[in-house]
Amino acid sequence: MKLKDQIAAITGAGRGIGRAIALKLAQEGANIVVSDIDLELAEKTVTEIYEIGSKAVAHKVDVCNYDEMNQLGEKALTAFDRPLEIMINNAGITQAKNIFDITPDEWDLMLNIHLRGSFFGMQMAGKIMKKTGKGSIVNMASVYGREGHPLTAHYSASKAGIIDLTKSFAKALAPSEIRVNSVAPSVVETDLWDLGDAQMSKLKGLKKGQAKEERLKQIPLGRSAKPEDIANTVSFLVSKDAEFITGECVHVTGGALMV
Fold first, then answer.
1. Which UniProt keywords apply (predicted)?
2. How far apart are CA 75 and CA 87, in angstroms?
3. Cα 129 to Cα 83: distance, rounded to the nearest angstrom
4. Which one of 114, 200, 203, 214 is separated from 128 by 20 to 30 angstroms, measured CA to CA?
């Protein structure tokens, strides 16, 4: 119970990595604002959290919307009568496409959800945490934000931006003892990765699943990550065990990226 009674908000917490993070933080004692653009999915995660024994509230949020993101802090205070202490900017999408075929709308959507959404989340949480003098923020990056990829240029660029934004906010908020870090997974067993694999396999002229198999061959530990692997890392970063870590990007890749 390293996070007992702490208040956390997580975007994109209705499924996949976000859901796993919500459940892990709840297991550690945190109370959660479960936000997602799909309210029904968020409510399912809330039900699971109550079964664990923690408290939670569902909240529909479009991370690209400044006003809706700022309501997350208000939602936490109203629901739990305590200010936000943990913010996880996790909401995301994926798309594999030839660099010459990415449309302006696809570029804008990718960067808006990842960069704009994370920026709004950090702004909102940072303002609240500065008043209380404590807090931790974690942003979801990607190994592609480090390496780049010929079929995910807009996705990779948005994730690289998140890594850099994390450093900027970490430096700005460090005097207030607020820590800001990012996590960069590789292959994760989620619906989002299945979609990316299907798109990438098609672009490469492969059968569905073969692009993922190619990627797995590059992972020394020989398997893809489970959502819980990412959630465990996030749980560590927001706990006191990581109280001297800020501005870092932690690579959860099974050894696919070693720096």
1. Oxidoreductase
2. 13
3. 8
4. 114
pLDDT at 52: 95
Dig out the tokens for 164 from the structure: 């850099």
Half-sphere exposure at residue 63, Cβ-oriented, CA atoms within 13 angstroms: 32
In a domain, 159, yes or no: yes
Residue 143 domain boundaries: 7-186+225-251
26 in any annotated domain: yes
Q: State phi, psi for 53 to the nearest 5 degrees.
A: 120, 0
241 touches 27 (CB < 8 A): no
Distance of CA 134 to the CA centre of its chain: 20
Dihedral-angle region of residue 187 (phi above 0 means left; psi in -120 to 50 means alpha; beta otherwise): beta
The residue to which tokens 């948005």 are assigned: 158
Q: Name the nearest CA neighbour of 52 among 23, 74, 85, 78.
A: 23
Residue 195 is encoded by which pair of tokens?
A: 């979609």
Q: In the predicted model, what is the mean pLDDT of residues 59-74?
A: 96
Which helix (H) or strand (E) segment holds residue 36: the answer is: strand 31-36
Tell me the residue type at 1.
Answer: M
* Percent of the chain with pLDDT strictly greater than 90: 95
Cβ burial of 110 (10 Å; 0-12, 13-18, 19+) is: buried
- Selecting among 50, 66, 144, 155, the annotated active-site residue is 155
The vertex-200 CA angle with 195 and 204, nearest 5°, equals 150
The verdict on whether 155 is a catalytic residue reads: yes
How many Cα atoms occupy the beta-carbon half-sphere of 42 within 13 Å?
20
Is 147 in contact with 100 (CB distance < 8 Å)? no
